[in-house]
Amino acid sequence: MIVGLAPAAHGANRTGRVFTGDRSGDWLFAALHRAGLANQPTSEHAGDGLRLRRAWVTAAVKCAPPANRPEPAERDACAPYLDTELATLSPRAVVCLGAFGYDAAARAYALRPRPRFGHGVEAVVPDGPTLVCSYHPSQQNTFTGRLTEPMLDAVLARAVAVADVC
């Protein structure tokens, strides 16, 4: 499972699929394809033929927040939806995109103690999945080189390895 922040107003809200229609999604779906988790490297809209294998992409907040910056209150209001997804899918690994995605997943699992967020940080939930952290594939991170394709590929490869061991 991959947990991001929230749908982008001009991305997922327009296209009908989370992480679709914006540059963050371009990065994410290309990486999912390279990892063997998607049948194609692009995601244009909900009916474009994209199929994920052994993966589910979601967001901690379910509606586009003002200025694309969700507040903790929005995260908390949407928490039951993420809780349902996690309980239904029982993932072995959860890739947390950004500190906000990590915080939402860690809260959902009541993870204590919680390691500090950082790219590549892992947190094992007792009797649950391993949370694998990545910087969010936002333009702010990808344009500056804070997140590179090899870095994102490594996180996805680690999540696949964790899921395969369980």
Helix proportion of residues, in percent?
25-40%
Kindly report the average pLDDT value: 92
Q: Any guess at the CATH architecture?
A: 3-Layer(aba) Sandwich
Read across the widest sheet, the strand sequence of neighbours is 2-1-3-5-4
Number of helices: 6
Shape descriptor reads globular
Domain unit count: 1
How is the biggest beta sheet arranged? 5 strands, mixed
- The secondary-structure element order is EHHEHEHEEHH
Task: Report the CATH superfamily.
Answer: Uracil-DNA glycosylase-like domain
End-to-end Cα distance, whole Å, is 14 Å
- Stretches with pLDDT under 50, minimum 5 residues: none
Strand content: 5-15%
Task: Give a count of the beta strands, DSSP E runs of length 2 or more.
Answer: 5
Give the C-level CATH assignment.
Alpha Beta
- Secondary-structure class: alpha/beta
Q: Would you give the CATH topology?
A: Uracil-DNA Glycosylase, subunit E
Kindly report the oligomeric state of this protein.
Answer: single chain
Rg over C-alpha atoms, rounded to the nearest angstrom: 15 Å
Kindly describe this structure.
The mean pLDDT is 92. The chain has a single domain, classed as Uracil-DNA glycosylase-like domain (Uracil-DNA Glycosylase, subunit E), CATH 3.40.470. Helix 2 crosses helix 6. It is an alpha/beta fold and 166 residues long. The two termini are 14 Å apart. A hairpin with a 5-residue loop joins strand 4 and strand 5. Strands 2-1-3-5-4 form a 5-stranded mixed β-sheet, with helices on both faces. It is built from 6 helices and 5 strands.
